[in-house]
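Dear Dr. H.,

I hope your travels went smoothly. While you were away I took the liberty of generating a structure for the chain from your last submission, since the lab meeting agenda had it listed for discussion. I wanted you to have the full record in hand beforehand rather than looking at slides cold. The sequence, exactly as received, is reproduced here:
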Amino acid sequence: MGIRWLTVLLVAALAGAGGYYYWQQRGTGQLDVQTVALIRGDVRRVVSTTGAVNALVTVDVGSQLSGKIGELNVDFSSKVKQGQVLARIEPFTFESAVREQEAGVAIAEANIALQQAGVERADANLHKAELDLHRSQELVVKGATSQSAVDTALAAQLSAKADVATANAQVDNAKATVAQRHATLDSARIDLDRTFIRSPIDGVVIDRAVETGQTVAASMTAPKLFTIAEDLSHVQILAQVDEADIGQVTSANPVSFTVDAYPDVKFDGKVEQIRLAPVSLQNVVTYTVVIAAENPQGRLLPGMTANVEIVTGEHVQVVVVPNEALRFQPVGPAAALVRDPGQTAAVQAASADRNARLLDKLKAGLGLSEADLDKVRAGLEAEFTTIRNAGPPGAAPSEGDAREQARMRIAKVLRAVLTPEQYQKYQEMQKQRPTGPRKATLWTYESGGLVPHEVRLGLADANTTEVEDGLSDGANVVVRVRETVP
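The corresponding predicted structure, in token form, is as follows:
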């Protein structure tokens, strides 16, 4: 109740101030009522932002090796093909490493032959040991030798078997060494091939960070030598859209934009992607919108700043009213022209009721204390006083074109008062808010008096708003009332 009571007092104070203003000014001149006719026209709602022009694919080309640049085959803006050699690191050290590993492979292969010869020698010794064992066993049966000689021959035969197993293991080891040497040789050859810095894609060199004779040091990360952009006939713009506007943007929205290099040329594009990851900077949340555009003449260069207008709605040949007519309210001298003063009070009471409902909603939904409500109330009063003072006499913000400005100012006040958790909850409450047709009051000047008309509004842009119902084209509506000096 306290909130509504205070709001009614504020409205009464405003009305009293307007009456006092009129009392001060009466008799000093006549009132000039300026009107404008409703016409048919086009309404185009846009979200304005900025973004940077980027290539569709940009690749940083680096080096996995350290060394001195011996050859440099491309420069800035050079067109390159996939696999083309851009530069080469001096290969002498790497060629020497390849030759060293080739010699190591040859040694390892020769060692296999040597170990295989050892296997043959062990096989021969085993054969002789088996013959000696057989002979000793025959002699001991005939009593021509002792059992000890048989035992000696048996031990020799077992030792020869062990020697054969050892020789075969040494052959396997030699073969494994050869495989290892081959792998090391392959690694050396790969390093030698890496001395050629090749382009991974077809494109254009947009940056070169190396000179002939410069030493490249590759440690934990590969140093960037070139930046290549793929096919600049197609570009994309990464635009940052405020959280208050992102709900209007959808994929495939048409886009027009300009760049400072060609301020008189408008380029066309379309929204290709809305990235869900928020970007928060100083408590301002934005979302990245990816815009695709054609660049057949190559005038759009990477890094250019694009001034973007995303078309989020467009209605053609509808009844439109200038936004200044929506801002008009009969206050001050204009209040004397209202045929039925109760109508003005009803309009103001409706506005006061909306403000009270907003504060009640914040108190109930966010659990705000009275101290926090006082801060919100004071902040809103200050912001809306700024809006009221910005217009001409007889004008005040209402549902028209000032709606967006009012929403932004409310968000500004709430960001300053609410905690991040409370502000996030407020945003969720706004998303769940039921939507419906916007209504506003337009005033006509009939038979020397101001008459209000409730209208239903449609699409709005920076200058005009669509009137869906309530008045037809040709009707004259009031935009301002001012006193003329006699």
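Two observations you may find useful: The two ends are 47 Å apart (CA to CA). The CA atoms of residues 98 and 189 lie 6 Å apart.

With kind regards,
E. W.
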